[in-house]
Predict the structure of Diaminopimelate decarboxylase.
Amino acid sequence: MHHFQYRGGELYAEDVPVSTLVAAYGTPLYIYSAATLRRHFAAFDSAFDGLPHLTCFSVKANSNLAVLRTLGAMGAGVDIVSGGELYRALAAGIDPAKIVYSGVGKRGNEIEEALNAGILMFNVESMGELERISRIAARLGKNANVSLRINPNVDPKTHPYISTGLKKNKFGLDMETSLAAYARAMELPGVTPVGIDCHIGSQLTSIEPFLEALDKILIFREKLVAMGISPRYLDLGGGLGIQYNEEEPPHPREFGQALTKALGDLPLTLVLEPGRVIVGNAGILVTEVVYTKKTPSKDFVIVDAAMNDLIRPSLYDSYHAISEVRPAERDTLNVDVVGPICESGDFLARDRELPAVAPGEYLAVYSAGAYGFTMSSNYNSRPRAAEVLVDGDTVTLARRRETYEDLVALER
Ligand code: LLP
């Protein structure tokens, strides 16, 4: 459920007509709904009420400060993967004691920044990283809480680009190396092993792979306990999918019930790193139809948003629903919705049945709240879109549209 609904023949974002937002801020425009963000966060977080847990929103899905503040105000922690995300999280007032730091390539300065901020823990992905965290922490006279990221070799049955828990993926450590890494962590100065971490992939539409991974992790945990390490945290990562089209992902409640059952009363605090399920359907991208074009083989709707604004269709061939901001009775056509970028891969939808829209009309591209703006670029020297956050009838310009001056501001 989200708060982008039609009222009186036009699309609203909560209590604000999308056409009003477009008139004020132009297109392409990302619109987020605060009520949807809160609803999704509450639904997810409360699904784990039966367990000690911490929900750490995955900043990579949507790093806008207004979004982070909205979630932070509800008690969310965050999962970060870079110094930049740490900077954003702190700027948004997220409690450092609720920040977990994942990622395979943490640099020295980033580790130092996180240690100085006093984050909850590092999810460590290699021996080299463990050694480096130890060296830096020891030099700073600090302690780093670490979890090792286990690669459980589980097939999440999702797009290959967003599967992360298979043996062939670059993420985490295989079980055997992990055991050696925990043993090493016990000897090293400056690091304390406090948890076990795992993230198997994104946009999972079934709970089975999570449970399969959890089973393996719980067996692994026994081995750690036998070694004298009792992890306090079990971080299961993110990955719960959402409905873009016809998927039927499990409700967070089911996910929560399954995990609560599997964990029983083990003395563990569950950490979760949801991104998409919180923010995916809390955002739309609004774009103006610039031209329509008939060719002997296809009809095209050319819009002013492109792969630089929303790369998911081009990169993963992913489906995003599209509809008119002001629907009208008319014939439908089978069209490709494409952007102005000079690549044939620049499309938002292919072979889509859409009403025969005309230039000057606006289209809403749904489920664009996650991995939309955060994956955007300036390709073709296109200034990045503006982002607004709607809360009831209140509108916040969460990020102003980039200007041409912004495009060259860092260049000489
Ligand atoms: N934790 C870790 C360690 C991750 O790598 C990710 C996502 C998450 C949490 C959050 O996963 P989520 O709950 O959002 O599924 N750009 C792709 C998705 C890449 C996901 C990368 N890692 C897309 O647009 O589908």
Observations:
- The chain has a mean pLDDT of 97.
- The chain has two domains: 4-32+281-408, 34-279.
- The chain has twelve helices and 20 strands.
- The domain at 34-279 is CATH 3.20.20.10 (TIM Barrel).
